[in-house]
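INFO  loader      accepted 1 record
INFO  loader      residues=423
INFO  predictor   begin
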Amino acid sequence: MRKILLFLIFILCIAFSHAQDTSFFKQDTLQLTLANAESIFLNNNLELIAQKYSIDSARATVITAKLYDNPDFSFSNALYNSQTHHFFDPEESVQVSQLIRLAGKRNKAIELAKSGISIAQFQFYDLLRTLRFMLRNDFYNIYFLEQSSKLYQIEISSLQKLVPAFEDEVKKGYMAPVDALRIKSQLYTLQAEYDNLRVNIDNIQNEVKVLIRANPSSFIVPEVQPSGFNNDLVAQSNYQALVDSAIVNRPDLKGLNANIEFSNYNLNLQKAFAKPDITIGVSYDRLGSYVQDYNAIGISLPLPLFNRNQGNIRNAKIQTEISKVQYENGLERVKNDVTTNYITALRSEKLLLGFDPTFEDNMKNLIEQVTINFQKKNITLLQFLDFYESYKQNVLQMNQLKFNKMSALEQLNFSIGKIIFNQ
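INFO  predictor   done
INFO  writer      dumping tokens
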């Protein structure tokens, strides 16, 4: 009896342990609208926070550029007098000097540093543009993949109910075993496809959770208004106005323009370095000069006979030309980006608008009737499976077309540098 009791306790412990293991990981549902997701993203994204520090770092260089050079101070005292044989005789000398920069070097250095702030800011806004596009595109992708997931859940649930019924029919001799096997095979195919779909969703979920710093165990459920899928906003927009808007708004293009300014400021500074600075100083010597308590004022400057900063000036001129070419290349890239994405979005929009708006509802009603008629044996197994496969492909294709349109609009927003569509 004691052995039986111990065995039961052992079994209960294993069962309890297994229950704890399976319930250890729980996902919390996180329902988000696109506006909510963007708000969290702006406050929490670590890449944006890190990039903001780069702006602060650039501002620190301005503080450094504004500082004046420190004066130089020197003091000397006689260590040993060979005549009197005394250490530290009263002979001592003091000198104070100050470097004075000419040709506006300090102001030019300040302008250069301020230009560096602009570049850092545009880099931040370009990173923001890129990450926001990823967030918005992933948001819509999750939504439409979840719609496809619901289709799989419905079809799998229906077939799971049919399989036991068909197996009973086979046992009673009312159905051929091959027909039951065909249904079971279709069920396994759907389950495998559904599993691959969930893996895809999980990967995109992971990317979104990193972007907004959500809890790793959370499950994001996008809230989207379907009414915005069937419109012709792209067709109504003005192409040239979109291109002009991109030229004004694209932060990467602004950054290239800021590089031109930076190069010009650097060229001015290098030209200023070709002009010498002066050093003014005062000195005092107690016993080491022709008179006691000698004091003097002096000035020194290097003679620009050989080094007139020629190499750095030429390099600065080359960098200026390079920055101009890079801006022209960036401008052409922006125009082409907008054109390509405009054409893609327009094509996706026209394709989706070409579908009958009642098509999806009609297909849903049709598959319901097909299921009922199959259960009543009014249609064959092959017809039933053919209808089911056709319905699945149509729903998946429609979800993909809707996502393609929303993604194309987001690509167009990204190429413009401003949220114009899908606001």
